[in-house]
Specification:
alpha/beta, two-stranded antiparallel ribbon, 14 helices, 11 strands
Length: 347
């Protein structure tokens, strides 16, 4: 189940919206640029459009207005009297558009209040929290109460305004959005590999020490038993913890082999192991329908959807992307900067 969030004015409303009898602001903007540039060619260059597109849009605009707006000759374009009248109307449209943009920015900056976001501890610590500075730049008056825990929050019972889960919530009263998919694999530190070698199979792992995060949402106990039948956790574990951050730091400092999302390689300190193990978890966002109509909550939801956008962040794609391929397929800012400087280099 995946819900597409619809933003802005519905298409049918956009078609009927008008200002001063002129319904096509894009064509009006092109018209105004031709007037200011003095020719179709100069306007096309300024707008980064082909000259044929500019001419076609002006023809459409003249049909819409019901008058000839330009005369053309070898020296360029010249406004008709009707065209001069339309210029004044279009300039008023332009001023109104600028006023609307300023009003929108003002509304964004005045939206205020608290939004409670519940998220799994690992995603909250290593992914959402470092991203929050982006959200705060746009909405400085919204206080995000970020609750990180492996127990899933129930938005239908108002335990949170927005919740992020690693399994699809069963509540019938919540709106759901599938954000993407998280892929798990084995990692170890370079120091551990230098001292103990790199395991390449599950059989190899039984001769190594492991660090395990125990969490309800990932069914850790059942997963361990399915991959290591006949072994108890005491046989293989060097450490067990209930939080992702402790799990990560233990492995990064050489305590043993651990399981992490593929994006963990960008944190530094750990490297992926070539063990044939892939464990995907769909990432879900839920919110109460009533909360979704509150502007501050709506803005938070839209931001979270974009923060997990698989088209932008390949480690959230449905298909598995190996960390060694990230640099080739990820086109955004530095991977180190993405994670808020968690790198263990120099520690």
């Amino acid at each position: 189940m995946s819900l597409t969030l619809e933003r802005g004015v519905p298409q049918e409303e956009r078609r009927t919206a008008s200002l001063g009898g002129l319904s096509d602001w894009d064509a009006a903007r092109i018209f105004l640029e031709v007037v200011r540039c003095g020719s179709f060619r100069s306007a096309a260059e300024r707008l980064d459009l082909s000259i044929n597109v500019v001419r076609r849009r002006i023809d459409d605009f003249e049909r819409q207005v019901g008058a000839t707006l330009f005369t053309r000759d070898v020296h360029g374009t010249h406004l008709t009297d009707e065209g001069a009248t339309v210029v004044s109307a279009v300039e008023r449209m332009e001023a109104a558009a600028f006023d609307l943009m300023r009003a929108s920015n003002s509304v964004n900056s005045t939206i205020s209040g608290e939004v409670r976001v519940a998220v799994t501890e690992g995603l909250g610590t290593f992914w959402v929290a470092p991203r929050l500075v982006e959200f705060q730049r746009s909405y400085p008056n919204i206080l995000v109460d970020l609750h990180c825990a492996m127990r899933s929050a129930d938005v239908s019972r108002h335990e949170a305004d927005v919740a992020i889960h690693l399994s699809q919530p069963a509540s019938l009263d919540a709106k759901l959005v599938r954000l993407g998919r998280m892929h798990l694999m084995f990692f170890a530190s370079e120091a551990y590999i230098a001292a103990h070698g790199a395991p390449k199979s599950f059989a190899d792992l039984t001769r190594h020490r492991m660090v395990l995060q125990s969490a309800d949402q990932t069914a850790t106990k059942e997963l361990f038993e399915s991959f290591f039948p006949g072994f108890s956790q005491r046989d293989l574990l060097a450490m067990r913890t209930n939080v992702s951050s402790a799990n990560y730091w233990a492995v990064a400092n050489g305590a043993g082999v651990g399981v992490f999302p593929t994006y963990t390689s960008a944190l530094g300190g750990v490297v992926p192991l070539d063990i044939e193990f892939r464990r995907p978890f769909d990432i879900w966002l839920s919110y109460h329908p009533g909360s979704g109509r509150i502007p501050r909550v709506r803005r938070t939801i839209d931001w979270l959807v974009e923060a997990f956008n698989p088209a932008k962040f390949p480690w959230f794609r449905d298909e598995f992307v190996h960390p060694r391929e990230f640099k080739a397929v990820y086109m955004g800012e530095s991977l180190t900067h993405l994670f808020g400087g968690f790198s263990t280099e120099g520690r």
